[in-house]
Write a structure and sequence with these properties.
Layout: E1 12-17, H1 27-44, E2 47-51, E3 61-66, E4 70-71, H2 72-77, E5 89-91, H3 118-123, E6 131-134, H4 137-148, E7 153-157, E8 167-169, H5 172-180, H6 184-190, E9 192-196, E10 199-211, E11 214-226, E12 232-243, H7 246-250, H8 256-275, E13 280-281, E14 283-292, E15 298-306, H9 313-325, E16 331-340, E17 351-358, E18 362-370
Parallel strand pairs: 1-2, 1-3, 4-5
Antiparallel strand pairs: 5-13, 6-9, 7-8, 7-9, 10-11, 10-14, 11-12, 12-16, 14-15, 16-18, 17-18
Helix pairs in contact: 1-9, 4-5
Amino acid sequence: MWSDPQARGARGVVAALLPEGATQLSEHERCTLLGFARELAALRGEDLAGFHVRGSSHPGHVYFVPHGTLRADEASALGIAGSEDLFGGVVPHAFVATKAISHPLIDSSAPAPAGWNPHFGWDIADCVLRGYTAFCVADARAAGRQLLARGPVRLKPVRASGSRGQAVVHDGIELLHALQGMDGEEIATHGLVLEENLQELRTLSIGQVHAAGLTASYFGWQRATRNNRGLVVYGGSDLTMVRGGYDALLALQLAPEVVHALRQARHYDAAVRGCYPGFYASRSNYDVILGRDAAGAMRAAVLEQSWRAGGGTGPELAGLARLQAEPRCQVVRAASVEVFGHSPEPPPGATVYYRGTDPHVGPMTKYTILDPA
């Protein structure tokens, strides 16, 4: 059973944890992560220790808020032993935290990293898009050709966030050109996802968080915006959160597509836990995409998993704070907002994580607003 050291009377500190060699991390990402750590320290009744310096120590328990999902060896080196020690997740192998695990290999003889479980991709086949993961260019080419028989194919480098580095191909020639422009060593080391491409997209987030002795589950629709270069990017999420597990969420009057997405996310989560022993998380988020396939049929599928602080974490923490402050409260609604360019002041009562000009992305504002109801 999940537990929290605060409930056992221990007192310590909360520390934000940057990736090793995080020289390319944007200013707004650093500020946001530190803001999350500050909120978690308040929730837990502990002190904020700022950014953790590797090799340093604290006299009490340290609760970590990592920027990314941790490997088991990284977690062990930090003294993390379970989900009560961090806001995020721990995986037995690095590839488990990436898009790579969501699809099977093209055949049983295809190369794969140590620890790869061939059963996982088949286990979740009904809740993801048709696709394959390849760890060599030849397998990527074969997988792409097979998928092209049913329509356009999207190529997704597994370590890229958002849609960066992705390409959509419509025939074999486009497939070859796209693969020629990709790094073969990157594919061999980390993998490449190839999956059917959908149109008319909407993205739904399904998630669950455990912190400060509380458990909450949620669903929410994502919004898109344009960044300072005119590209369509993540613009925030509108979350509905309930006290308790996924069954408490199902007790609400949910739209049929939300119920279906919730069942898909739960199946994906259970499959990870069954196929990759050593995985654990206090924050789980599954992006479920809804769109139209090449045949015109509407589809829903888990697109990506996230076991780290992310775009929906602001509303998650705001919701937890209300549930903690109001024991009778059962349902909370909150939203995260990301605005690029020069924008009006955030609304009164908003929790602002960043408002300024980031050297990497230009002017932007990031905040969370809690529904007063």
